[in-house]
Each structure stands twice: as structure tokens, then as C-alpha cells.
Write a structure and sequence with these properties.
Number of helices: 12
Helix content: 55-70%
Shape: elongated
Structural class: mainly alpha
Distance between the termini: 20 Å
Radius of gyration: 19 Å
Order of helices and strands: HHHHHHHHHHHH
């Protein structure tokens, strides 16, 4: 029997369609998911769906706008603390969570993203990269890098960002994962740290390890994302 998404009262039809689309695009892929499948998931006719989203690309762009809004809301309320390591881990975990919950946006972009410039001022990819770069500048200013380590922060930012950016793709494509646990988060961070930690002083390494230990043990995604 087909499962129909029921998100309760007060949720608009467009929101229900966007949630169903996000789930199916993530699990099946953008190209392999039809508007008819999404309509069936929501429990509406395809005509009702196309009233809200005339084309599949319109739906993908709406989901992308939702992801951007989540990231912008976090960034708007972000208040750096005195603990650089904890701020760094929070940034990393949030980025991993958002990437997993909206992984089709990254994986399938060439199929619907024609004309989208990820380098523009509103791109959350750019904002995430810039936030990482700023965190590394804070680490440098605090004297947490080894004196004999590579000091080109832009190159280090690129290397770390690339490793973190493709971790979710690895889990999905190489391991077939549909649910992410805290252990998976830790594995992803270990790969991230494998680039960062060799550049840090012994004391800074301990700080970053401790920050990871204190981070909330909560899986990202919701199992069917």
C-alpha cells in the first residue's frame, strides 16, 4: 500500500509537495523521480501538483530555496563564542546535516541547475566556504597552527571543504547509506580532521578532540531523508 505523507493541519499543499519531492529526489534521484510519483506520495492529483509547480525544475528550485533559508537563518543567529574548537565543530556538523538532507541538490545539480551560478553572493556554498575560511583565520590568529605547518589558509580551506563536501556522496554512493548515525558523523569528521589536525599544535589538537567529544550525540537526517 502506498504511503501518503501526512504532515498534519496547517501545512500547505506546496510545503507537502516540497517535502515529498525532497525525500524522493534524495532517495531515487532527480531524473528518476516523476511528478506523478511525488503527487501519489502526497496523496493529490498530478494536476494539483502542477498547479503549484508547473515543472519538476520549479520544485527543485523551491527545495533549494528552502535549504538556503535554513542556512541563512542559522547564519543570521550565529554568535561566535570564545571557544574556537566548539564553533568549528558546530559549523562542520551543521554543514554535514544540511548537505545530507538536501543531497540531491549537490548530486543532481547538472540536471536542473542550468543557469544557476553557485558563486553569486546568495550562494550558500560560497557562504559555507567563507565561514570555514573565517574559522581558519581565527585559528591562525589564536596561534593554534604549528609554526612549521603550511600557512596558506586559502589552500587549506579548499582542501578541507572538498573533503567535507563529498563525504555525504561517499556514504550514499559507496556504502548505500540511507540513514546517518553519530558514528558516521565521527567518521566524516575524522576525514576532515585528517587534513586539519596535522597543521595544529599539540594543545590545539587536544582542544579540537575535546570539542568533538562534547558535541551532541544526535544523528543527522531523519532516516528517510
Amino acid at each position: 500500500m502506498k504511503r501518503v505523507i501526512n504532515m498534519g493541519r496547517g501545512i500547505s499543499t506546496a510545503d507537502r509537495i516540497a517535502e515529498a519531492g525532497r525525500r524522493l529526489f534524495n532517495s531515487k534521484g532527480y531524473a528518476a523521480t516523476s511528478l506523478n510519483e511525488i503527487a501519489a506520495e502526497v496523496g493529490i492529483s498530478q494536476g494539483n501538483l502542477t498547479y503549484h509547480f508547473p515543472a519538476k525544475r520549479d520544485l527543485a528550485l523551491r527545495i533549494e530555496a528552502d535549504a538556503r533559508q535554513i542556512a541563512q537563518a542559522r547564519r543570521k543567529n550565529l554568535k561566535p563564542s570564545s571557544n574556537i574548537a566548539e564553533d568549528y565543530v558546530e559549523h562542520l556538523l551543521f554543514a554535514m546535516s544540511l548537505t545530507w538532507d538536501h543531497r540531491f541538490l549537490f548530486r543532481d545539480r547538472t540536471q536542473f541547475g542550468s543557469g544557476i551560478d553557485v558563486r553569486n553572493s546568495e550562494s550558500e556554498l560560497t557562504a559555507d566556504f567563507d565561514e570555514l575560511h573565517t574559522l581558519l583565520k581565527r585559528i591562525a590568529a589564536a596561534g593554534m597552527f604549528r609554526q612549521d605547518a603550511v600557512t596558506d589558509l586559502l589552500i587549506l580551506t579548499r582542501a578541507i571543504w572538498i573533503v567535507s563536501r563529498y563525504w555525504m556522496d561517499y556514504l550514499s554512493e559507496f556504502e548505500g547509506r540511507e540513514e546517518i548515525t553519530w558514528k558516521d558523523q565521527e567518521r566524516g569528521i575524522e576525514h576532515h580532521y585528517a587534513v586539519l589536525l596535522p597543521c595544529l599544535t599539540a594543545e590545539a589538537k587536544r582542544d579540537f578532540r575535546a570539542a568533538l567529544t562534547r558535541a551532541p550525540r544526535q544523528p543527522i537526517g531523519n532516516g528517510t531523508s
